[in-house]
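Researcher: Quick test of sequence recovery. Tokens follow.
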């Protein structure tokens, strides 16, 4: 079981913890701008989300972020005036972290949809760090295929360069694209980020701290975030959701001849479940325990899921 965010004394905790109902009450008059059809397009496989979940959890978060973004933009403009600098545009960057099967992709897409529907219709882009994984050929050469998703399997220099350029307000910054079908980076395919108002960055290890190298501090992804969200759940639930997703993919995407995992399509139910649990315990669980979970205390907001995928508790970092 994961230890929870709240320590023995709430007074000493860096977080203010809300029940689901307490958090939902903070929605105020924030309008619901998504419908059922929108959610069906946004949710990931085996990560169900309802309109009630959007109203209770994501509308209050959208309201909070609108306040944070406005405050940050105001501070930026004040600083520009102080420095007598030319007016520029710096995006507000939101990181979304958590384990495999925690629901990061659905959260990122729902949040993007809500933020882009604010009255002033800001430009909101979404990038996943999967595109910055080293290609399989490199991972195989370096003996890292079994550690795909671990911090060392990413091209950290390329990722930090990308975020540095975006945060500096550069135009048309490119990020590589990853295919879950072929389980590899797509050569010569990119997504272009062109000075958005808000950029959402989703990935397993996006909250990793800076690392020292040769006596120098090397910036990492989290250094560029203005706000961050961690999707939390107990280990047994995460394993259950991972296995369930694997079993469904075996009947769908794995049957595509191009799929990296096509060898699993014809397994029996028992064999497929054993393979899924083996992958989880050999790769995803060690990565969760050693790399992902230790970054949870660095998040601005922790959303804790229960057995039905519903957010049951919200912890917001105190300012």
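Model:
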């Amino acid at each position: 079981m994961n230890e929870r965010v709240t320590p023995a004394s709430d007074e000493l905790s860096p977080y203010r913890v809300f029940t689901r109902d307490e958090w939902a009450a903070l929605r105020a008059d924030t309008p619901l701008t998504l419908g059922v059809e929108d959610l069906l397009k946004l949710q990931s496989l085996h990560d169900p989300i309802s309109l009630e979940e959007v109203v209770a959890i994501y509308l209050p978060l959208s309201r909070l972020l609108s306040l944070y973004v406005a405050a940050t933009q105001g501070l930026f403009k004040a600083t520009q005036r102080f420095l007598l600098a030319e007016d520029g545009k710096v995006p507000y960057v939101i990181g979304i972290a958590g384990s495999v099967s925690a629901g990061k992709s659905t959260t990122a897409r729902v949040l993007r949809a809500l933020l882009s529907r604010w009255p002033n219709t800001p430009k909101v882009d979404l990038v996943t760090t999967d595109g910055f994984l080293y290609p399989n050929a490199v991972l195989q050469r370096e003996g890292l295929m079994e550690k795909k998703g671990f911090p060392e399997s990413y091209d950290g220099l390329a990722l930090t360069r990308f975020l540095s350029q975006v945060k500096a307000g550069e135009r048309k910054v490119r990020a590589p694209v990853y295919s879950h079908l072929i389980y590899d980076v797509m050569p010569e395919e990119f997504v272009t980020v062109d000075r958005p108002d808000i950029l959402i960055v989703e990935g397993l290890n996006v909250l990793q701290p800076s690392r020292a190298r040769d006596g120098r501090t090397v910036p990492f992804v989290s250094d560029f975030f203005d706000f961050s969200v961690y999707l939390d759940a107990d280990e047994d639930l995460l394993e259950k959701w991972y296995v369930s997703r694997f079993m469904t993919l075996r009947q769908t995407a794995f049957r595509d001849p191009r799929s990296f995992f096509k060898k699993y399509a014809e397994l029996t139910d028992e064999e497929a479940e054993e393979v899924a649990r083996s992958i989880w315990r050999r790769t995803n669980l060690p990565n969760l325990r050693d790399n992902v979970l230790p970054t949870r205390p660095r998040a601005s907001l922790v959303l804790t899921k229960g057995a039905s995928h519903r957010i049951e508790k919200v912890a917001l970092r105190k300012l």
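The longest helix spans residues 51-82.
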